[in-house]
Automatic annotation (TrEMBL):
It is a multi-pass membrane protein. The lineage of its organism: Bacteria, Bacillati, Bacillota, Bacilli, Lactobacillales. It holds the Pfam family MFS_1. Its main location: membrane. The chain crosses the membrane at residues 15-40, 52-72, 79-99, 144-168, 174-195, 226-247, 259-282, 294-311, 317-342, 354-373, 385-406. Residues 14-408 form the Major facilitator superfamily (MFS) profile domain. It comes from the Bacteria. This is MFS transporter. Keywords: Cell membrane, Membrane, Transmembrane, Transmembrane helix, Transport. It is found in: Cell membrane.
Length: 417
């Protein structure tokens, strides 16, 4: 359904420049993000403050995603990506100035900055997702999403270690200026990228957020199988979010490990995701993408659930690391393949509205799971959260398997071509 990007000369080179810009601006932004979290940890030592920071990072996506899609569909997407990066850089400068005028950052300003970063991401993610089909031919779209996923995974591998290292060496007010450097590099490379403009007819249309959110939901409802897959993904988020927030506690409390060992688990998970993204990026024959998607639910369910039965010692910890490498490998086969199917299911002129609704639906259960994580973990033990998460993932895989509209969605989609 997407117009051919072959009208762009050298589309592969064009996409490579785009990927490079996303990597460099993304890595600088994530380093600053980790540095800010380290700063909050050192300044407050409060789990409540860190939980509040996590919620701030999720709320814009949950609350605003359905309403930004119409703007994305009617706006120059290159300009929107540059502006959202510029907002992050602006608040980095504001924090730098505040940190230069007094010994510490005002916490209220730190939280506002975190919120604005999340708000910018709320615009960036669906914009990137909706622009990809306009840059890459349909036959290469799945592999392109795999390459974009590899960029994200590489950032998750590099940024935590580099952020902690730089935090120990560089004064925080100077470190946050990496956001400005990342903006300049990312915007400069993005200016070199050619993006097809197929939306002249929609530019003059007024933006009606509520009507656009309704239109996005109606468009999604026309794809019954995709709507079912999305709702099952929402259920998975509800089960997995408590698990995701408890990884450091699982390492330190249950396995009696160190903070460094908790970092190893995160890096290994990201390496697994990088490997999964690499497999997707080189694989050419995707006759039925639902099969590996369903399998990924079962792999994540078994590996996460098995962690609950490990002994709480060093030997158990290394088994935990191995299980998370496998789980990380499986995750891109859900996220990346689903994204490619979504992009091929709707016209580029409406994809922003659809992505806004989808992102909100997929993440709406996240804050609920995050709020539940502490009380449930305290009552049942952190290891049993992993068992619940594993069972939940298996349930999601089973639901996708037994519902024909979901199980056959990709085959039906490819039959439309």
């Amino acid at each position: 359904m997407n117009p051919s990007p072959l009208a762009i000369p050298n589309w592969r080179r064009n996409f490579l420049i785009f990927l490079t810009g996303q990597f460099l601006s993304g890595i600088t932004s994530m380093i600053v993000q980790y540095a800010i979290i380290w700063y909050l940890t050192m300044q407050t030592g409060s789990a409540s403050m860190l939980s509040f920071a996590s919620l701030l990072g999720m709320l814009p996506t949950v609350l605003l995603s359905p309403f930004v899609g119409g703007l994305i569909d009617r706006t120059n997407k290159k300009a929107l990506l540059i502006i959202s990066d510029a907002v992050v850089a602006l608040f980095a400068v504001i924090l730098f100035v505040a940190g230069s005028l007094q010994a510490t950052f005002p916490l209220w300003l730190v939280f506002i900055s975190l919120f604005m970063r999340a708000l910018a991401q709320t615009f960036q993610q669906p914009t990137i997702q909706s622009v990809l089909p306009e840059m890459v031919p349909a036959d290469d779209l799945t592999r392109a999403n795999g390459q974009l996923g590899m960029i994200s995974s590489a950032n998750f591998i590099i940024a935590p270690a580099l952020g902690a290292f730089l935090f120990s060496l560089v004064e925080i007010r100077f470190l946050i200026l990496l956001d400005v450097i990342g903006f300049l590099i990312g915007a400069g490379l993005l200016l070199l990228v050619t993006l097809p403009d197929h939306h002249h007819e929609t530019r003059s249309e007024p933006v009606h957020p509520l009507a656009d959110a309704k239109a996005g939901l109606q468009l999604l409802a026309t794809r019954r199988g995709l709507l079912i897959i999305t709702l099952i993904g929402t259920l998975f988020t509800l089960f997995f979010m408590p698990v995701g927030s408890m990884y450091p506690l699982m390492t330190v409390q249950f396995f009696h490990g160190t903070v460094a060992q908790a970092g190893i688990v995160e890096v290994v998970w990201s390496v697994g995701m990088l490997a999964g993204g690499f497999i997707i990026s080189i694989w050419k024959n995707w006759s039925d993408r639902m099969r590996p998607m369903i399998l990924s639910y079962f792999v994540v369910g078994v590996t996460i659930g098995a962690a609950a039965f490990l002994p709480g010692n060093t030997h158990g910890f290394w088994w935990f690391v191995a299980l998370n490498a496998v789980a990380g490998l499986a995750v891109p086969f859900f996220n990346t393949l689903l994204m490619a199917m979504i992009q091929q299911s709707f016209a580029p002129s409406t994809l922003g509205r659809v992505m806004g609704v989808l992102n909100s639906l997929m993440s709406i259960s996240g804050p609920i799971g995050l709020i539940m994580a502490g009380p449930v973990g305290d009552a049942l033990g952190v290891q049993n959260l992993f068992l619940i998460g594993g069972i939940g993932s298996l349930l999601c895989g089973l639901l996708t398997l037994i519902l024909p509209a979901a199980r056959h969605y990709d085959r039906d989609l490819q039959a439309e071509k």
